[in-house]
Fold:
Amino acid sequence: MSLTSLYRGLSQLHENRTLITAATTPLGMAAVWLVASALLWGGALSHAIPLFLLLVLIKPERRELILGVGAVWELYRLLTLFKINEPGAIALGMVLILGLLYGLFRVARHYPQLPKPLQQHPILFLHLALLTLLLSIPLLHNHYPNLWPVILLVVALLPFFVWRVGYLLLSARKRPTKVGGFVDHLFYFIPLFGGTNVPYGKGHDHLASKRTQTREQLAQTQLAGIKLLLLAWLWLGVMELMEIVIYGEAGKQSGYSLENFSPVIFTLPAMILGTVPPGLPLYILWAGLFCDLIYATLALAVSGHFIIGTLRLFGFNLFRNTYKPLLAQSIVDFWNRFYYYFKELLVDFFFYPTFLTYCKTSPRLRMFIAIMAAAFVGNAYYHLLIWLSWGELSFYTGEGLATRLAPYLFYSFVLGLGVYISMVREQARRGKPQPLSHYPRLVILRRIAGVWLFFGLIRIWDVGAVATLGQRFHFFGSLFGM
Structure:
């Protein structure tokens, strides 16, 4: 079998009718479970996933309940990861978190009975309550020092929960009679399948729409999940190869360094902070910039493929989080492909509310304000919540916020402008005949290079948490010999 045919077979794994039919049989389901368990072993996700996957294979119609039990297990695991080992502290943490989530679920369940201001602006009031809690962290630290580990965990999880609860409230506002039961939401509130503060798979409505209904659909979706897990391991291998061949440090530790055969490329944070030899050639600086973009894209793809791949194994046929962004030919297309569910979060909670409310008589201005609300304001606010939730008191003095937030505000502002200009250009190009070119592939490569250039440059203001604005602008100038 040639490499080409092997690649085609693996890439179309979930379209192979013979495999799909086989995966619906008891022997096929056992094979799916064994392969999936092997691919999940050694990853960053919970080691309990194979057990819950086995239960879903036996009773797929009860998957929400099974994953709800998995959520309780995952919460217990989180408490122990935070070194909360005393039974009383574990019980307190579980009661606080589950009680908070259940209380918010009850609010959504009785949405029509809420006061009118809450019904009209549920997300606004949710975030006002969250900010009040986050800004009270110093007071909690002074008054309850013995409970600080539990309080810190609850506070650290608030930005994780707030967007998931936001999707619950949006669902309740649209269809208050179809909120469902608590277990229908618990499994994505505390996902056994992993995740970040961004809800992979969004909320209940989206997950329900992607839920497989038949054994055949489940088998096909599980094969698609296995394909994503295979891709995750492939890209993880490429990342490790980059660390050995390009960055050298991992290679030195492993004994397989090839840096003598290639120029040493430094990481972007190291170049920004100036912890590299002075007077590096420009080609080394630019190579480091683009290698950072490639490495960051691969890292996001790996984590997203593991999460979405696992969700597919549980029978939710979801779109992948990262889909070939390095082949995007426009800024807006890259933004849509790079971190899909984060983009969806910004669109759902910032773009649409702004677009549907303001500047209805001016389409261009309306689009501009809505995009800036999402890519600039929403983007910066999302990360501000994370930094505040870490419990670092420096963030409340202004010093921590100035170091961390100022560069990200600049990054988000430029990103918003880039997305808007790109969208306007794509809209103007749509429907018009493309100019003839003797080198169409060269045109495509030029567009891709432009996208790489934009996102590579703005990452200067995104990475390197302790770097100041001055250091970032200094490195930017050094790329052009200044």
In short: The two ends are 53 Å apart (CA to CA). Residues 250-257 have pLDDT under 50 and may be disordered. The chain has two domains: 23-217, 323-482. Residues 420 and 433 are 22 Å apart (CA to CA).
